């Protein structure tokens, strides 16, 4: 099995170089790296040419405008591997045998289509981001992992056939949850392996906090109105949006940004329900939610952000 590592990047030359070099330390070397450059102006292209022009494992694509997460989808379509490795330009596997473990799981368990890994936030005191919706016993991991309804985008393996069947990511924000939901509806299975670890260095570069907040919160609205009934989505979303407003105030976002967010939420609620509403089949509801509400999942994320991003003490 060949692994295609697809990296979408913008102006993170040093982080990208570090991540690429970490992949070359893997004991399993049947992989390719596709660098999708979103109009970087920091010398990313020159670095790739200087450092890796003679390396047949690396293919470089440059876009003249920032396509954001759409660039990742282009990378998938250009890839030649059986497994797509989803990652950030500032993340990499912790252990040199990571890909060996990943391939072993995909070969031994053909029902697994999406493989999620543990996420270590390096710049948050190497804390673990417990993204999985359920509390699991990480000391007793089943051989085929834990059932999951999403994965973390800093490190995950996905069979390319899944992309071929359901399409790519819808863009940044809730993209892992939406993709996994579509995959489960299509009959695929996702598993979480806490013993396969990804290191996320969480670079602050190119993170426009206000615009990012609008987009992320709007995607929460979009996800719920896409898959749930109108009133159920409303009940799930609006208590969360009230909390998001308080978070924006705590972060001292500009009033105009907050107004833009409110208008964006209204637009996504109406437009998504009218044009993209795709109810989850009743027999798939528990697989998609694992019995955990969107409210609980989002509150878990908000609590993490507040503890680690908003009120974290400067060292």
Shape: globular
Number of helices: 11
Q: Specify the CATH homologous superfamily of the largest domain.
A: Spore Coat Polysaccharide Biosynthesis Protein SpsA, Chain A
What is the average of the pLDDT values?
91
CATH architecture of the largest domain: Alpha-Beta Complex
Overall structural domain count: 2
Report the count of strand segments.
10
Secondary structure class reads alpha/beta
Oligomer: single chain
| CATH topological fold name of the largest domain | Spore Coat Polysaccharide Biosynthesis Protein SpsA, Chain A
Unreliable spans are 310-315
Largest sheet: 10 strands, mixed
Strand fraction band? 15-25%
**Straight-line N-to-C gap:** 44 Å
Radius of gyration: 19 Å
Please write the CATH class name of the largest domain.
Answer: Alpha Beta
Helix proportion range: 40-55%
Q: Spell the H/E element sequence.
A: EHEHEHEEHEEEEHHEHHHHH
């Amino acid at each position: 099995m060949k692994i295609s590592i697809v990296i979408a990047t913008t102006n993170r030359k040093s982080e990208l170089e570090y991540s690429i070099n970490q992949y070359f330390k893997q004991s399993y070397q049947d992989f390719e790296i596709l660098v999708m450059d979103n109009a970087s102006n920091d010398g990313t292209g020159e670095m790739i040419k200087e450092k890796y022009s003679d390396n047949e494992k690396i293919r470089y694509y440059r876009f003249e405008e920032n396509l954001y997460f759409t660039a990742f989808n282009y990378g998938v379509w250009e890839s030649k591997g059986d497994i797509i490795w989803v990652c950030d330009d500032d993340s990499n596997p912790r252990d040199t045998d990571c890909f060996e473990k990943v391939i072993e799981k995909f070969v031994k368990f053909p029902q697994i289509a999406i493989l999620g890994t543990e996420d270590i936030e390096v710049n948050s005191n190497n804390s673990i981001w417990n993204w999985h919706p359920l509390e699991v016993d990480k000391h007793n991991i089943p051989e085929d992992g834990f059932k999951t309804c999403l994965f973390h985008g800093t490190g995950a393996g996905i069979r390319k056939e899944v992309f071929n069947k359901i399409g790519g990511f819808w863009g940044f924000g809730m993209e892992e949850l939406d993709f996994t939901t579509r995959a489960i509806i299509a009959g695929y299975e996702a598993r979480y392996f806490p013993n396969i670890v990804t290191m996320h260095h969480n670079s602050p570069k190119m993170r426009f906090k206000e615009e990012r907040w609008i987009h992320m919160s709007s995607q929460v609205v979009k996800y719920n109105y896409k898959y749930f009934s109108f009133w159920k989505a409303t009940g799930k979303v609006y208590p969360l949006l009230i909390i998001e407003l308080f978070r924006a105030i705590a972060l001292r976002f500009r009033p105009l940004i907050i107004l833009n967010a409110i208008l964006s939420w209204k637009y996504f609620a109406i437009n998504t329900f009218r044009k993209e509403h795709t109810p989850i089949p009743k027999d798939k509801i528990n697989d998609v939610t694992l019995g955990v509400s969107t409210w609980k999942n989002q509150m878990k994320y908000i609590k993490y952000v507040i503890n680690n991003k908003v009120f974290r003490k400067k060292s």
